[in-house]
Amino acid sequence: MTVELESGTRIRALEMRELECFLVLAEELHFGRTAERLYLSQSRVSQLLRSLEGRIGARLVDRTSRRVTLTPLGARFLTGLRPAYGTLADVVDEARAAARCVTGHLRLGFLGSASHRMTAALGLFHERHPQVATSVVEIPMADPFGPVRRAEVDAAVVMLPVCEPDLALGPRFEKQPWRLALAAGHPLVRRGRLDAEDLAAVPLIASAPPAPDYWRDHHAPRRTPSGRTIPRGPLVATLQEGLASAAAGLGGMLLCRPTAEIHVRADLAFVPVTGLPPNELVLVRGKESDTALLRALTAAVADTGCETHTAPDVCP
């Protein structure tokens, strides 16, 4: 570990191992016993001492064949170092203890609907860490990543793909087939099952900005697999806006099967669609927000049977 001390325009680096070695040597006044206490070789102790003396620019220890003593400068340095080193060690110990202790308030965002797997993961997390207050927050379809970036939630379960350099991906949830939400009286409902090529016959309801274009186009594709144009329907900010638009006959909306099952209503039909890559959810967090709380959440999500994310998706 290196500590950098700024003095004027100069930066002086001090290695913690060098300071620790000097403190033990000042107590033992014996290179052999110092090496034993630090689990080092005597030559390594000598090397650390020389390095520290080189940084300071003067000898701190006098060594003869019979005895080891501190120089006057070494004694003065020891007097100032002991309390400073102790304070720093206490700060590090407190930080380590805080990192191991999972406490606080966890805010988990979700997109569309809180799936069974997500609620199961939250239940497992709360069982393991009952002292943590947990809450769930719905994320708008028009801004799937913004709440994480603005720290409105600690993490979120969102649909892939996620090609955001400032976000880290955690475990994936199980893959789900697609359903097309249509007005109950729409002619395509009578088919009972649709192919991706059939999407060319219905405007697709899509998320509004600021959702990224690549993300919006993945969930409301502009072309069928064969290249036929899919008309663009209304742009919506939330799932409920999309469902209302579909029920009003303004277009169709692609949803994963669990979301469709949760939102069954008389004025909508949810028709299975084949020929598209499956829908997949993933846990995301800010890349710089690696805390004990989020590590515990990630473990709970993974332990409910989710897949571990090992490689980024290919992004445009």
Automatic annotation (TrEMBL):
Sorted alphabetically, the keyword list is: DNA-binding, Transcription, Transcription regulation
What name goes with this protein?
Answer: LysR family transcriptional regulator
According to its UniProt entry, this protein's organism is Streptomyces cacaoi
Entry GO MF terms: DNA binding; DNA-binding transcription factor activity
Tell me which PANTHER family the record gives: HCA OPERON TRANSCRIPTIONAL ACTIVATOR HCAR, TRANSCRIPTIONAL DUAL REGULATOR HCAR-RELATED
- Give every HTH lysR-type domain span: 14-71
What protein family is recorded?
A: Belongs to the LysR transcriptional regulatory family.
What domain of life is recorded for the organism?
Answer: Bacteria
GO cellular component: a single term? protein-DNA complex
Top-level taxonomy: Bacteria, Bacillati, Actinomycetota, Actinomycetes, Kitasatosporales
